[in-house]
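User: I'm writing a tutorial on reading structure tokens. Could you give me a worked example: one chain, its sequence, then its tokens, then a sentence or two explaining what the tokens reveal?
Assistant: Sure. Here is the example chain.
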Amino acid sequence: MEMGEWDRAGDRLPGVFDRSRLSPTQRRVARYVADHPREAPFLSSVELAERTGVSQPTVTRLAVALGYGGYAEFQRDLRRAVLGASPEAEGNKFQASVDDEVGNLRALRELLGDEESIKDIGRELAASVPLAVIGLRASAPLAGYFGYFAEKIHPDVRLITDGGSAGTDRLVGARRAGGSWALCFIMPRYPRETLEMMRYARKLGVQVATVTDRDSATISSASEVVLPAGVGSRLVFDSQTAAMALSTALLEALSDAAPERAQASLEDFEHRAATLGWFTE
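And here are its predicted structure tokens:
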């Protein structure tokens, strides 16, 4: 989309420009959305509140004042309006699902602009030996992806994809062995057992960095760091493209935090792979 098309997209945002019913703080949020159509529809309510200097409940009240059931419904309409301004956004439901993910990746790009924060997280995860990686139910594949590659560059990764006593035992074992951090993936729908494990980790003295689709109060209260990565919700089941891209960025930060260790581990892996003929090419 050309810049002019993005600018005109503001004219398509539903209800935001009808500000007669809005309070002064709600108008501030509405004005920000109108002035930033490339960015605002892909921000969480917490992020939008931070950008506009208002409270998160103010953002939610804006959505309700405009006739929506909540922020998520309001955000979906904003995304439809902005993506609808783009010729490539026209198409069937499968193409529309990809358009949603483009928006999620754009928001993730903004998050990764704070390079030092990502590097800081990488250093903390690298220093935690063992490093617990948690992901249950729909988040298990994300945790498995991160854990599989993290094992190539980190000396002790403890993957936890089971809830209940089995998962708790692994978490306790990681803490007793000296682990100080856990990386947790919790995507919709949010399993209660994941939140319980996050809270228990903190009771054990383990700090939690969480990859999730939104920075909710419930998840924030159980985390030291929350890394939002939106999900695509156009189809029957959510897609997690942005979370996968964020996982890759975190792996890079993990490697950068201990480059000599990572290089030695990778060289050892490649030597064994070649000797044992693990790969065809």
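What the tokens reveal: The chain has two domains: 3-90, 115-276. DSSP finds 13 helices and five strands in the chain.
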